[in-house]
From TrEMBL:
The keyword Metal-binding applies. Its EC number is 2.1.2.11. This is 3-methyl-2-oxobutanoate hydroxymethyltransferase. Belongs to the PanB family. It comes from Nostoc linckia z8. The gene is panB. The active site is at E181 (proton acceptor). It catalyses: (6R)-5,10-methylene-5,6,7,8-tetrahydrofolate + 3-methyl-2-oxobutanoate + H2O = 2-dehydropantoate + (6S)-5,6,7,8-tetrahydrofolate. Homodecamer; pentamer of dimers.
Amino acid sequence: MAITTQQLIQWKQQGRSIVALTAWDYAIAQLLDAAGVDLILVGDSMAVVLGYQTTLPITLDETIYHAKAVRRGVKRAFLLVDLPFLSYQESIQQAIHSAGRVLKETGAQGVKLEGGYPEMVETVARLVKAGIPVMGHVGLTPQSVHQLGLRQQGKTQEASERILSEAIALEQAGAFGMLLEHIPADLAMQITQKLTIPTIGIGAGPHCDGQVLVTSDILGLAEKSPPFAKVYTNLRETITKAVQDYALEVRERKFP
């Protein structure tokens, strides 16, 4: 049985931590699902896997293409898809159309969008009213990289209060969960305690209801990982060595 929004909310109430990772293709998705990951995010972070410098160039069509491949590899995990930059900010109608396409064409169970300012709260409310499950995203919002950079958010009292109020407003608008990115651990704990929906942290300390990282970071595939990520193995080194060994054997006519 596939995991549902109701289960994720119930797990928060039970104190069960939620395990989340990103995926960008069938092979990775299948491995994550078989390993027992609870939530798989087709994030716009796949921009890095596709060779972009930021998340901004990813299009809705690219996102849908990769999400369809991920869906084919997922049987149990909750499948969540990021709405890419400028696929939902222009108007509520644009957001409904983009999110509707994602659910219809990929089989995903929900979408995630960035920001908690009043216009985005209204957008979330309308999406939920249309039957589209939405996860909010506050703190560092990478689609605003040219305004915010990639530095930690919520370090001042004013910024902390703003992020907390945004999270509360998004829950009231109907969001089923909240991603907290690169904020102080004490702020993440405060948000987690205030909300009745689960919080998923990335660089937000240990007090969230779950954690997510970019899979290429934990596997050591990325050229450079953020400071809050943990590298669990170095596949970049392993793959390079395997390819070099293969190339050497072919050139020396030792293979096949």
